[in-house]
Amino acid sequence: MTRFTVNNNPVEYRMDPQTPLLWALRDASNLTGAKYGCGNGQCGACTVDIDGQAVMACQTAIGAIEGSFVTTIEGLSRERDHPVQLAFIAGNVPQCGFCIPGMIMAAAVLLKRNRNPSEDDIRAGITNLCRCGVYPRIIDAVLDAARVQRGDGEIAVGAPPGTSPADAARRVPALVPPAD
């Protein structure tokens, strides 16, 4: 049995300790945000936060992280209002969306460690692959999220379908209605 914490909940997996974390999360915990991409740790689709480090879950055996704290995209923010998530939405970053959870997790870890990253810091810290090629928008979104986390700005996004911009701004303080 392997024990650690996932999204602030203690878990115990009765799986082979060599089982990749990705499969424990997806199959045993029904946390499907981390995606299987390449299976060899090169694409980053399976990125999660383990004890403050961006880690490829497909390459991490659950036995190796006994006692650790794991955060997945599902645990990043209950309301989906983490500055990185909001910046990705506002910057119209997602295309197909497959790589986005891993990108967001890598960006969130980067911003925990570096509150004021340069474009070069972002390129070095987020090595995830995106087949849609939205890299310039990712860099802009991470810079925007960093500004919000430092308290130097806000993120303007449109309201979710069926919600007025004013209601969205009241519900999530980091949101401001876009200027007309």
3D architecture notes:
It comes from Sphingomonas hylomeconis. Pfam families: Fer2, Fer2_2. Residues 1-76 form the 2Fe-2S ferredoxin-type domain. Residues 165-174 have a biased composition (Low complexity). By secondary structure, the protein is an alpha/beta fold. It has two domains: 2-76, Roll (Ubiquitin-like (UB roll)), CATH 3.10.20; 83-175, DNA polymerase, domain 1. It is 36% helix and 14% strand. It is built from seven helices and seven strands, in the order ββαβββαααααβαβ. It has helices at residues 21-28, 73-76, 83-90, 100-113, 119-125, 135-150, 165-171, and strands spanning 2-6, 9-13, 47-50, 53-56, 69-71, 155-156, 175-176. The strands form two sheets. It has a five-stranded mixed sheet with strand order 2-1-5-3-4, sandwiched between helices. A hairpin with a 2-residue loop joins β3 (47-50) and β4 (53-56). The longest helix is centred in the C-terminal third of the chain and has 16 residues, at 135-150. It is globular. The model is unreliable at 173-177 (pLDDT under 50).
Summary tags:
180 residues, alpha/beta, Ubiquitin-like (UB roll), DNA polymerase, domain 1, 2 domains, 5-stranded mixed sheet, two-stranded parallel ribbon, 7 helices, 2Fe-2S-bd_dom_sf, iron, oxidoreductase
Strand order of the largest sheet: 2-1-5-3-4
List the uncertain runs: 173-177
Percent helix range: 25-40%
- How many domains, as an integer? 2
Principal-axis shape equals globular
Q: Cα-atom Rg, whole angstroms?
A: 17 Å
